[in-house]
Amino acid sequence: MRQTAKPTRENRTITVDFHDETTYFALLDNTQAFIEFVLAFLLSIGFQLAHKATCCSGGCLTRHSHYARVRLGGLTIWRVQCTACHAVFTVLPHFVLRYRSMRPEVARAALLATHGGLSLEWCAVIHHISPMALYRLVCALGHQSLVPVLTRCGLPLPVYFLVDEKHSRCLTAKVYLPTIVCGRVIWHLGYTEEASAAAFTQSYGAFQRAASQQEPSYRVKGVLTDGFDSTTKSMRTLFPRVRLGYCLRHAINKLPGKLAAITSPVRKALRTQFHTLLYRARQRKGLRVFALGQRLRRFVDHVTTTAGAANGARVRRWFQEKKAGWYAVLADPQMPVTSTLLDQAHNALERKLFAMKGFHHPHGSQQAFLTGLAHLYNLVPYQRRAQHAGQCGVEVEGGRVPTTDWFLNLQILTSGGFR
Ligand SMILES: [Zn+2]
User: Fold this and answer.
1) How far is the CA of 209 from the centre of ligand 1 (A)?
2) 99 alpha carbon to ligand 1 midpoint, in Å?
């Protein structure tokens, strides 16, 4: 039996936009022109090739070998090699998908329909493909992880972010999707079968490792959670000096649940007053934290007089538990205040997960599928009438995408050969 693990071969495929198929076929017969075209394309998108670690990058590219793809009807695919480090890159023309015979225009339409919330089965019906082929396509995109793709778009690693776990089901078992969102971009979408701090730490740890690999000095300053114990514990483990805040909107929504045996108008009035309290505390820069402590105490007194001692005591205990997290939000003006954008991301995913119920099975590649969905979430432009019409999440957050075509961007950015 082999004792040593086989070293995983690095995926050095690069997708190159040849504009149309004719150009590609014409270039196949001209080595020099082919290489020049590839180099010009690299220059135009501003990416570099993932050479071997030892490469001084002084090498130039030569045409290495070619082979025919049987599945693609014998299409010739070229490989190019770096003369310095001998890394070999497979040049995939834009009109083919890696390891797949599905045409890009079919994949484009099917992925867009999936992203829009249509079930895999229905997407498959309207595009004459099998649901499994579509599932595998999303998984294939997900083999490239989120952090390198987002940093390739020039997005800085998030210093402040939102974190929460979506609850879902895998057949009858409960599963959790630990998620990290910064603005309109998903930085991590994991999959765990337990809601323990250890399980979440392992999932979020994948993000932490990927980020530190990109930037060894990476530090997180602030994280907003809804205050769930396992989430905050996992954040403290992974980012020891992080400021942990609790979502203020969650707090406002939770208050009515703490008030028992009172009339609805009284409950509503207290909720409104609590909302005003937190809102005012946010307005008062500098004094915010001090002001909040005092106001919370006064609010408890107010609850006691209007809703009785039992409710007053319950609210006081709840404040004791949560106020540190609210202070943390108010103490740093850069801290996100509510997790609304994360909830939006989860709602968008909900539809797709519901749609993929048939594919929830113990040995499925849930992680790859979810990462693939996250790429779509980050890179598919918003529809015409949306607030950021025509832009994708990455662009809204200030990132740059290589081309104006979202599907081509997806192909290019999930290629393993770029750096
Ligand atoms: Zn090299």
Assistant:
1) 25
2) 25
